[in-house]
Amino acid sequence: MSDNLPPCPECSGAYTYEMGALLVCPECGHEWSPSVESLESVDDAPGSRVIKDAVGNVLADGDTVTVVKTLKVKGSPSGIKAGTKVRNIRLVDGVDGHDIDCKVDGFGAMQLKSSVVKKV
Protein backbone atom coordinates (compact mmCIF):
# COMPACT_ATOMS: atom_id res chain seq x y z
CA MET A 1 0.00 0.00 0.00
CA SER A 2 1.23 3.45 -0.89
CA ASP A 3 0.72 6.28 1.60
CA ASN A 4 -0.25 8.76 -1.12
CA LEU A 5 -3.30 6.83 -2.39
CA PRO A 6 -6.68 8.25 -1.31
CA PRO A 7 -9.12 6.21 0.78
CA CYS A 8 -12.03 4.52 -0.95
CA PRO A 9 -14.82 7.04 -1.75
CA GLU A 10 -17.46 4.36 -1.09
CA CYS A 11 -16.43 2.82 2.25
CA SER A 12 -13.45 5.03 3.29
CA GLY A 13 -11.24 1.95 3.37
CA ALA A 14 -7.54 2.74 3.75
CA TYR A 15 -6.19 -0.27 1.84
CA THR A 16 -6.62 1.01 -1.73
CA TYR A 17 -4.20 -0.13 -4.40
CA GLU A 18 -3.49 0.61 -8.04
CA MET A 19 -4.54 -1.80 -10.78
CA GLY A 20 -3.50 -0.35 -14.11
CA ALA A 21 -5.16 3.06 -14.49
CA LEU A 22 -7.70 2.39 -11.73
CA LEU A 23 -7.66 2.46 -7.95
CA VAL A 24 -9.28 -0.53 -6.22
CA CYS A 25 -10.61 -1.04 -2.70
CA PRO A 26 -10.16 -4.64 -1.51
CA GLU A 27 -12.69 -4.14 1.29
CA CYS A 28 -15.77 -3.29 -0.81
CA GLY A 29 -14.51 -4.00 -4.34
CA HIS A 30 -15.11 -0.45 -5.59
CA GLU A 31 -12.98 0.62 -8.59
CA TRP A 32 -12.47 4.25 -9.64
CA SER A 33 -10.21 6.45 -11.70
CA PRO A 34 -7.84 8.54 -9.58
CA SER A 35 -8.31 11.59 -11.83
CA VAL A 36 -12.10 11.48 -11.39
CA GLU A 37 -11.66 11.06 -7.61
CA SER A 38 -9.40 14.08 -7.36
CA LEU A 39 -11.84 16.21 -9.38
CA GLU A 40 -14.73 15.22 -7.10
CA SER A 41 -12.78 16.08 -3.97
CA VAL A 42 -11.87 19.48 -5.43
CA ASP A 43 -15.54 20.19 -6.23
CA ASP A 44 -16.60 19.22 -2.70
CA ALA A 45 -14.18 21.62 -1.03
CA PRO A 46 -15.90 24.86 -0.01
CA GLY A 47 -14.98 27.91 -2.05
CA SER A 48 -13.18 25.91 -4.73
CA ARG A 49 -15.86 26.26 -7.40
CA VAL A 50 -14.65 28.53 -10.18
CA ILE A 51 -17.14 29.72 -12.77
CA LYS A 52 -15.80 31.37 -15.92
CA ASP A 53 -17.55 33.40 -18.58
CA ALA A 54 -17.52 32.77 -22.34
CA VAL A 55 -13.99 34.18 -22.75
CA GLY A 56 -12.44 32.68 -19.62
CA ASN A 57 -12.77 35.49 -17.07
CA VAL A 58 -13.52 34.30 -13.54
CA LEU A 59 -16.97 35.40 -12.35
CA ALA A 60 -17.95 36.38 -8.79
CA ASP A 61 -21.14 37.35 -7.00
CA GLY A 62 -22.13 40.95 -7.73
CA ASP A 63 -20.37 41.18 -11.11
CA THR A 64 -21.91 42.88 -14.13
CA VAL A 65 -21.99 40.81 -17.32
CA THR A 66 -23.07 41.27 -20.93
CA VAL A 67 -25.00 38.64 -22.88
CA VAL A 68 -22.85 37.60 -25.88
CA LYS A 69 -25.55 35.99 -28.03
CA THR A 70 -29.28 36.41 -28.48
CA LEU A 71 -31.19 34.06 -26.20
CA LYS A 72 -34.69 32.69 -26.73
CA VAL A 73 -37.01 33.06 -23.74
CA LYS A 74 -40.21 31.05 -23.42
CA GLY A 75 -43.25 33.32 -23.61
CA SER A 76 -41.36 36.22 -25.12
CA PRO A 77 -41.47 37.02 -28.82
CA SER A 78 -38.10 38.80 -28.88
CA GLY A 79 -35.87 37.09 -26.30
CA ILE A 80 -32.77 38.60 -24.70
CA LYS A 81 -30.67 40.44 -27.28
CA ALA A 82 -26.89 40.15 -27.49
CA GLY A 83 -25.26 43.06 -25.69
CA THR A 84 -27.82 43.22 -22.87
CA LYS A 85 -26.16 44.17 -19.56
CA VAL A 86 -27.05 42.17 -16.47
CA ARG A 87 -26.02 43.69 -13.15
CA ASN A 88 -25.43 42.13 -9.75
CA ILE A 89 -25.30 38.45 -10.72
CA ARG A 90 -25.29 35.67 -8.15
CA LEU A 91 -23.48 32.35 -8.75
CA VAL A 92 -25.53 29.25 -7.91
CA ASP A 93 -25.50 25.48 -8.39
CA GLY A 94 -28.19 25.61 -11.03
CA VAL A 95 -29.92 22.97 -13.08
CA ASP A 96 -28.64 21.92 -16.51
CA GLY A 97 -25.63 24.26 -16.54
CA HIS A 98 -27.53 27.40 -15.53
CA ASP A 99 -25.10 28.70 -12.92
CA ILE A 100 -25.98 32.43 -12.80
CA ASP A 101 -29.04 33.76 -10.97
CA CYS A 102 -29.97 37.31 -12.01
CA LYS A 103 -32.65 39.82 -12.94
CA VAL A 104 -32.76 40.87 -16.59
CA ASP A 105 -34.45 44.20 -17.32
CA GLY A 106 -37.75 43.57 -19.10
CA PHE A 107 -37.76 39.84 -18.28
CA GLY A 108 -37.40 39.57 -14.49
CA ALA A 109 -35.60 36.91 -12.45
CA MET A 110 -34.02 34.03 -14.36
CA GLN A 111 -30.99 31.79 -14.56
CA LEU A 112 -28.35 32.02 -17.28
CA LYS A 113 -25.44 29.84 -18.34
CA SER A 114 -21.99 31.31 -17.78
CA SER A 115 -21.06 30.27 -21.32
CA VAL A 116 -23.36 32.95 -22.82
CA VAL A 117 -22.12 35.96 -20.83
CA LYS A 118 -18.97 38.08 -20.72
CA LYS A 119 -17.72 40.00 -17.69
CA VAL A 120 -17.78 43.79 -18.10
From TrEMBL:
Domain Protein YjdM N-terminal stretches: 5-33
Domain annotation Protein YjdM C-terminal: ranges: 51-120
InterPro entries, A to Z: YjdM, YjdM_C, YjdM_N
Family per record: Belongs to the YjdM family.
Protein name in the entry: Alkylphosphonate utilization protein
